[in-house]
Input
Amino acid sequence: MAATDLSRQGSLKIIDVPKILRWGSIYIAQARIRNMLQWKWSIIGESFATPMFYLLSIGIGIGKFVNSHQAAGVDGVKYLTFLAPALLAAACIQGAVGEATFPVLEGFKWQKGFFAMNATPISGRQIANGVLLAAMSRAAFGCVIYYAALYIFGALHGLHTLWLIPVTLFAATSFAVLMMGVCAAIKNDDLFLNMVQRFLIVPLFLFSGTFYSLASMPKFLQIIGWASPLWHATEVGRWISYGHHVSAAALAIHFSYMTIMAIIGFKFAHHHFTKRLAK
Amino acid sequence: MCAPYQTPARVGDGPQRSRVAQMSAANSQSTPEALILAKGLRKEYGDFTAVDGIDFRVNRGESFGFLGPNGAGKSTTMRIIAATLTRTSGEITILGKDPEVSGPEIRAHLGVVPQQDNLDNALTVEDNLYVYGRYFGLSKKFIRNKIEDLLAFAQLEEKRGVKVEALSGGMKRRLTIARALVSEPEILMLDEPTTGLDPQARHILWDRLFRLKEQGVTLLITTHYMDEAEQLCDRLMVMDKGKIMAEDSPAGLIKKYSTKEVLEVRFGADRNAQYADQLRGMCERIEVLPDRVLMYSDDCEAVLHEVVSKGMHPTTSLVRRSSLEDVFLRLTGRSLVE
Output
């Protein structure tokens, strides 16, 4: 039965704790990505199909209709050009939030995998960072493909529009990390996520100046847009893409808003990951 | 709250190693090296006291068990040792370190098998081991070699490419144990390792754990099964309601708190209590349970003879050796498995 005896040097010899303290978040991200890769074809398929559906239906279908009724276009450009930064940001934010929330419920409640991770030298903070990093990697993949599709469809012009990618990812990170923290904090979470999807994500998509300028809405509805990271990302995106008028002060506000949301989000997520693991 | 896990390298690996080395040098001749030392350890959840100021010591290489019914505070104690739960008061060191200061440094040397398997169901057997090894910062090459050993140890070689969700309960349990061993831990902690397993799966698991014990791995086990405690533990701490009721080897506990043998007699539900007074005089001690009377003596055949000769005819009678169940009954007045 020699085969069943384990060779041993002992953890005191083989484990390098400072290394784990440095790289733990990356180990978690690698594991999450390894998990995602099992569904790589569906992820790839979805990443290509989503922009196609939106571009063909809304961009081209509705765009043709809008352009034929409004010769000057919307905001001085073709409807598809107007729409592009918003579609990109919306898809990226939704993707990031999905990937940063469901795994949190799974990790804390359904499979309890976070407790297994936390039984190693890895901390709650590192788990949060790793899950977010993996979520944002997937979001970045989707974002690049979406960007390419928009470019090919003629919705974006010029290499300067590449700046849309980091701006969009920044907005997505700030919202995703906040939602991740909320997921860690909430106890009765199954219902919660459905509510988020129905009453938060969808309204944000519809009321963030995605399909028409936020200014054309009544004031009380504009508030939803102001609170939404999607609107801030869209405004900056339109400014990058076709020079939509945004004052320097407004730009500062947009970036500050996303930055503050990210800082609060990280603090909140780290706190609640640590707390829930120690319950 | 986050402080314990955010102290990078404050207590580095280097000093700790030398400290452990010093301890083992100092202890090698006389007393065994203590891997875990607790004093007045207490954990409260609001008004509820889960662990009520307990003291204990676990030495290197021993197999130490927490025996007690559900809710005795065993799992809470385990989680404090595992540096994943903060204590309310008292002191505890694991490998010479305070878990609230050096959480990651302590967890680096523990292998944890939780009460509920928390494997990644979507991954294969092999990938579960691989991913977990990576959390300890181990190199790919090291883990790949280790996986071969672990699969053989857990008798899961043929299941290496199978997803965890397709495994039986016993296989999952063995995989969870194998996973905890990937980092070659100093201490292997098992919380109710065989709860929910069928007898055959339990015996396979006990055999595996026994092998680890033979290799000098320090085992920390919680259980509410007395046979498991007897099989696996060198030393036991009997817990109830957050307190330590007794501590000794299984044989020592039985010797101290029970007689050599036990006679179990049944007279029928109504009459058990009725005969109790008469029976009491015939042996050292009796326990009246709802369905039977336990009579404690070093010679139970003689006691049974006396019972019958006095005209009492139990419907069934059984003479057996005392077990930890009897110890627990004596200490708490209650049964282990309720």
Remarks:
- The longest helix of chain A spans residues 79-110.
- Chain A has one domain: 23-50+102-277.
- The mean pLDDT of chain A is 90.
